[in-house]
Amino acid sequence: xxxxxxxxxxxxxATGLLCCCLLFVVLPRCEAQVNLIPxxxxxxxxxxxxxxxxxxxxxxxxxxxxxxSPDYFHACAMDTLVGVPGNGWTYQYxxxxxxxxxxxxxxxxxxxxxxxxxxxxxxxxVPGCTYRLRFRANPAYNGSYWLTNGGGACNNLGxxxxxxxxxxxxxxxxxxxPDFPVRNYAHLHSSTVISDTGAWSLxxxxxxxxxxxxxxxxxxxxxxxxxxxxxxxxxxxxxxxxLIDEVEVISLDPDCHAVGMQASDRGxxxxxxxxxxxxxxxxxxxxxxxxxxxxxxxxxxxxxxxEHHVVRFAxxxxxxxxVIWARSAFRQVSIKFVVL
Length: 340
Description:
The protein is mostly beta strands. The protein contains no helices and 20 strands.
């Protein structure tokens, strides 16, 4: 696996036209890269976070704790512990937008204590296909409540795929979900210590899927014995807490699609047409669901069930590439189009 960690500062938000195609023409051969991570930069939320711990109402849409209590930070928060740029753990602007998440990655006094967060991919990975994995990370330092006199740094922060969910979805007594012990492996991780507190660091690598993974998890999946951790800069605090932003899983193989997606006889695939500024997806046969996402994997329209084999979407307000994922009990297909 290729692995790259680099500092890349604040994101350039300038955008450009991704593909020159006719307005709302379906593009079955368009090879634009689509991010399989929903809510990849954690901007989507039901309400502004009010407290720490990834509790119900205090986490980004589609993301859950997979172990212990990661945190969600957003500029709209009234509680200064979970604000952006200043919060209880650090003072840092988001890499993209106004939000990021944070996880406990290492503690010299608590053996193998970890925090994980995860989400379901927009489509499962296809065995044998190559994917580019990347995310941005920043070590917390000089927060308003924790790490007030410094902060730690470590290696091994990474990304892990699973076929089954370990999401803590219920707001019940502690712990609200099953254990998720360290694996001592990850499909992507930083072999070097990420210690730059000023700039966001990019962790990136290519991965050939060996299973139909449906979920992705973020954190440090290695034990303390295999992790290089310690105080960052002049700090004496042996606690490492990382901010994470802009998570990406992108297929590098244009012919790789979801498990079960296959070439079919004419008439078996969905058809698309415009009716009064509404995009109608028609797929005859069994019932199905559909969702619209943009090129970054952000869900524009949540999953909708078909009614009489039709799902209707409103026209997106912004120009760019969009993808509709439609799935039945037997197959999953994608429909790509561009708004100019």
